[in-house]
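Before any further analysis, backbone shapes were mapped to integers, which produced the following:

***
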Amino acid sequence: MYGAIRTYRVTDVGELTTAVRDEFIPLVRDIPGFVAYYVVDSGGGTVSSITICEDQAGIDASTARAKDWVQERLSSLIESGPEIKTGEIVADHARVGATT
């Protein structure tokens, strides 16, 4: 599996979260090999998204869609970023039945 972490500073975490739930997740969940997507609110206007895919091609597709969507939809909310880190997941564990 592979992952991407994208970190941004934003002016309105609530507005970003709503847009991600309503608009962005539907854009990425159909990517072949897509496994999961999360957004972490680190406080102080800093948010990170975490995308998990079965292969690097899925991560690349997700990153491309994120870039286009953020530019088109959220540019007014972005103060800085994204800082992007991608790579192979080398250790993992998931609780069975976990919900968000």
